[in-house]
Amino acid sequence: MRHTPEREMLLEKVCAFHQPFTAEQLCTVSRELHISTGTVYNALSLFVLAGILHVNKREYGQVASEYQLMIPRRSYTQLICTKCGRVAEFHDKALERLIQTRKYSNFTLRNYGLNVYGECKVCRRSKTSRKKEQA
Ligand SMILES: [Zn+2]
Fold first, then answer.
1. Domains of the chain (ranges plus CATH)?
2. CA dist 127 to 60, 87, 130, 131, Å?
3. CA 1 / ligand 1 centre spacing (Å)
């Protein structure tokens, strides 16, 4: 892969995300760098090919695909709404302890990322109010 200043700046931005992000979010934070949208999308494809990023292709609704570093820089547990894409980090001490103290044969755990998918309060509420309107 050819090394360009734009790609290096984008990689820095990518590493600054602490949770999965969309191409749109990367475009927003890259605006100050005066990097074109096309360059951002090209770099994302290259980072995926190079094994730096993993892409979570979404099959539900209109939610955009999300990118995340192949190796999370720190462990995280988060809730992801499959309707609107809202991401909320949560802390569950018992769950975190369980994962961190778990022994795997021929494998040493460094850190982990846990995504829990479902429907957020806002989306659940709008679905309930739509049902009431129809009734
Ligand atoms: Zn939602």
1. 1-70 (1.10.10.10), 71-135 (3.30.1490.190)
2. 16, 19, 5, 6
3. 38
Q: Contact at 8 Å (CB) between 123 and 81?
A: yes
3-state secondary structure of 65: coil
Ligand 1 center–CA 8 separation, angstroms: 33
Predicted TM-score (pTM) of the model is: 0.55
Q: How far is the CA of 132 from the centre of ligand 1 (A)?
A: 19
The length of the chain is 135
CA distances from 4 to 30, 35, 71, 118, 121 (A): 15, 12, 23, 39, 43
Taking the C-alpha atoms of residue 45 and residue 42, their distance in angstroms, rounded to an integer, is: 5
Angstrom distance (rounded) from CA 59 to CA 117: 12
Residue by residue, pLDDT tens for the chain (135 residues) are: 778 889 999 999 998 887 789 999 999 988 888 999 999 999 999 998 888 888 877 666 666 788 988 876 678 888 888 888 788 888 899 998 998 888 889 988 888 888 889 999 999 998 777 777 776
Token pair 């600054």: residue: 16
